Amino acid sequence: MRNPIYLESCLLLIWLWSQQILADFNSYVVPQPHAQRDHRQDISQHYDYLMEENDEPLGRGAARNKYRSTHGQAPSRPEMSESENFVQSNTESVFSSGETRDFLQFLRRIQYDHRQVPENEEGEATYVEVSVVVSNIRAVSEVTMDYAIELFYRESWRDPRLRYDRKLFKNKTELALHESYTNFLWFPDTFVPNAIASKNPQRNSISHRSLLRLDETGKLLYSRRISLVCECTMDLTLFPFDKQLCKLGIESYGYTADHVVYKWSKGARTALELKKIRLPDFTIQEAYVTSQMESYATGNYSRLYVCFVFSRSSGFCFLQLIIPSTAVVITSWVSLWMETETEFQDMISIILAITFLIFSYNEMMPRVSYIKAMDIYLGVCFMIVFLSLIKLALVKYMRQKIMLTSDSGNSIREMSQMSTRQRLRARKASSMNFRNNTGSTIPASEETQQMLTVPNGTNGLHGEDKEANNNSGKSHISDMLEIRITQRTMHRFHWVSQMLFFFGFVIFCLFYFLIYPNLHIVSIDPACDKVLAEWFAEIY
Asked: Which residue numbers delimit the Neurotransmitter-gated ion-channel transmembrane domain (predicted)?
């Protein structure tokens, strides 16, 4: 029998051998995780350090000494892998090669301070030339009274501190700088006073980028793409034949006119340029620029204005409001021409239709306290339909009156015919009684006596004549006060009222579409006075 100690040692060796094989396999197939350094943080740290060193107006090495005094030693490049070194080298290449490296050295040498406003030799204010290219106007809303605009904003100014010798930059008269230099050069604090929202893109966005150039005379050109939503106060008195004036203001937020003055660009870069723009509800009639001084409690500020004149395209209102309301009015007339088959339920349905149009129109319009042109048209249509209902009620009343008059005339005629028969019958009975010569009288029946007492008495006839004469005087006065309604009168009233409705509505439409839009005087905004316009853009 073998020693158990021997067996245990063999099993232990086998287990160790299997564990070694498994560890070798895992190290080959699945690499062991190791502590990974956040290279983004290292790159950001190195970027901030490099930018701080380039931005310090104290000269070369100021940022390094500052870092050493804070952390006890100068910053050292962290050890990175080959891929990390590739990313780091690309980031540093922006600031350590070509024109950018020479420009950084130039800024350190002149000890440039980006917080200081440029000053010329005469001590005058810095003039900022502005040029605007409108690429699109997405919407003009009368409900919220605003409009969305996309534009390329360009501003140019001269900074005497940035004059350079072209020999330092390989005889180049103009330098194309990276957009990150906007943090290290002085820029005017431009803002739009009537903007209520703006699209702020992320850094290095593909849709919103910027351009920065510097020439040898120290003149900077900065261009960027901007998306804004600006307010536009509208006067809807002539809706849907109105014209709206919307403006875009540009001014400095913190620098008064003593330091910064804005003016429109002239020469190769025009002040305002419009691309081909198509709007669903408006057409751009005019576009021009003006400038003026604005006074605030903090001082006088230079402001520029871009003015747009929008003319409304009323096709939507014609299709959705004017044509349906006109059709409802014509329908009410057709129903009145067929008055024998028209009931009040039909006219009430027509009134409900025009009421629905009015409510649907009010839902899509802002709540204003004045009357709009569209309100007048819909109100006239509603009034005509309502008067048509009143006319239908009058025609129904006349027809019933004529029917009652004709029925009463027939009954009187029948009664007169019956009284004549009774008189003839009584005369025959009396003549038969007088011809009887036998001396004995034949007693008349009760029916004959009743018939004799009514027609034959002369006193009765005279009494009836007296009562008729008394009643005739009263009826004559009532006839004087009462209008006689005949079939001819009803037809004449019906025809005259229909002609009045038709020609009255036609005259109103001619006045509404041809004359009324020109009666209203549009107020002129003093900021967008055409007399003070400096440039008119071409409309495509």
From this structure: 321-475
The three-point CA angle 239-241-242 to 5° equals: 70
Q: What type of residue is 164? A: Y
User: Is 481 among the domain residues?
Assistant: no
Burial of 462 (0-12, 13-18, 19+ CB in 10 A): exposed
Query: Is residue 313 helix, strand or coil?
Result: coil
CA distances from 106 to 185, 222, 318 (A): 13, 20, 66
Residue 34's SS3 state is coil
Q: Are residues 308 and 336 in the same domain?
A: no
281 in the same domain as 161: yes
Asked if 166 and 285 sit in the same domain, the reply is: yes
- Count CA within 13 A, CB hemisphere, residue 16: 6
Domain boundary among 407, 423, 453: 407
In which residue are the tokens 């339909």 written? 385
Could you list the residue range(s) of the whole structural domain that residue 358 is in? 317-407
Closest CA to 138 of 234, 311, 280, 314: 280
| pLDDT tens sequence across 174-198 | 998 988 888 889 999 999 999 998 8
Strands of the 535-536 sheet, one edge to the other: 190-191, 243-252, 299-312, 282-296, 535-536
Chain-centroid distance, C-alpha 442: 106
Is residue 373 situated within a structural domain?
A: yes
What's the CATH number where 140 sits?
2.70.170.10
Note whether 136 and 166 are same-domain residues: yes
Q: What is the DSSP string of 164-199?
A: --GGGGTT-SEEEE-GGGGGTS----EE-TTEEEE-
For the stretch 33-87, pLDDT in tens is 433 444 334 434 444 544 444 444 333 344 444 444 444 444 444 444 443 443 3
| Residues 195, 275 within the same domain | yes
Strand partners, 290: 305
Of 391, 407, 423, the position where a domain reaches its end is 407
Q: CB burial class (10 A; 0-12, 13-18, 19+) of residue 78?
A: middle
Handedness of CA 319, 320, 324, 325 (dihedral sign): negative
pTM of the model: 0.68
Residue 351 lies in a domain: yes
Total count of domains within the chain? 2
Q: Find the length of the chain.
A: 540
User: With contact defined as beta carbons under 8 Å apart, do 108 and 51 qualify?
Assistant: no
What is the widest separation between alpha-carbon atoms in the chain? 187
Token couple for 373: 């042109």
pLDDT in tens, 224-271: 999 999 999 999 999 999 999 999 999 999 999 999 999 999 988 899
Give the C-alpha distances (Å, rounded to integers) separating 355 from 237, 328, 510, 513.
21, 11, 24, 22
Q: Both 267 and 366 in a single domain?
A: no
Q: Are 171 and 99 in contact (CB under 8 A)?
A: no
Of 151-160, 218-227, 514-523, where does mean pLDDT reach its minimum?
514-523
In a domain, 423, yes or no: no
Alpha helices (H) along 338-457: 344-363, 373-434, 446-453
Nearest to 197 by CA among 150, 159, 134: 150
Q: Residue 157's closest CA among 123, 130, 121, 190?
A: 130
